[in-house]
Amino acid sequence: MSAAGQIKVGVVGARGRMGQTVIQAVSSADDLVLAAAVDQGDDINLVNDCDVVVDFTTPSVVMPTLQHCIEQGVHCVVGTTGFDDGRLAQLQAWLSSKPGVGVLIAPNFGVGAVLMMQFAQLAAPYFESVEIIELHHPDKVDAPSGTARRTAELIGAVRSDRGVAKSPDATSQELQGARGASVNDVRVHSVRARGLVAHQEVIFGGVGETLTIRHDSMDRTSFMPGVLLGIRSVAKHPGLTVGLDSYLD
Of 31, 98, 146, 149, which sits 20 to 30 A from 84 (CA to CA)? Predict the structure, then answer.
């Protein structure tokens, strides 16, 4: 903490669109202070005196940053996507040697998006079919989005636990990729188009009815309440946490 009791925050990926938005949010909060702003070519040691580092970079560079922060005893709030089981296991291994450090991996910081995932889990066992469509701007480097992947994992786990069969699909001929990716037996389709920000819909289908659960983020500021919640809460949750819902009542 700073002398005034403020949380000292470092932002990695500071020159990116999300990084700039995080900097504005941190600078506007009375209980937070921006202590470091780091991007490509900057010395990562600039974050060593921070209480919490927020990372919005890319899947190709996030892991070295997290390893460094954990070794320095700095808590991390991560909006970068691309975390598979192998990467999560590696984080667990690093954190095992620093038991007081907390790391939050959040596929989405939008409170509405977190609720969308929870609603999808509630609906998952009651419909024969389910598919996910996620829509983002064309500058996004990963597909499917971390939110869509996490949603599919959660839906798939619920359906498996409840003994629900895979969604019916008679497709026998297709162009490669036409049916999207399969995550936990849930089909996920990615759309990339200029003008979009971050959008996702989960489509459930049963005999004679469909249910669509959709969330839209029209501006990156919609993610900031969740980011600030993560910054203020991560020290209270040592170890690895996946999903902002763990920090919500």
Answer: 98
| Three-state secondary structure call for residue 9 | strand
pLDDT digit string (tens) for 77-127?
A: 999 988 888 999 999 999 999 999 999 999 889 889 999 999 999 999 999
Residue recorded with tokens 């504005």: 24
Give the active site residue among 136, 189, 199, 215: 136
Q: What is the CATH number of domain 7-105+221-247?
A: 3.40.50.720
124-163 tens-digit pLDDT: 999 999 999 999 999 998 899 989 999 999 999 999 999 9
The percent helix, strand, coil of the chain (3-state, each to 5) is 35, 25, 35
Numbered ranges of CATH 3.40.50.720 in the chain: 7-105+221-247
CA atoms within 13 A on the CB side of 178: 7
Look at the block and give the residue holding tokens 């009542």.
Answer: 249
Q: Known catalytic residue: 136?
A: yes
State residue 5's pLDDT score: 82
Which CATH homologous superfamily contains domain 111-218? Answer: Dihydrodipicolinate Reductase; domain 2 (3.30.360.10)
Name the catalytic one among 137, 140, 166, 237. 140
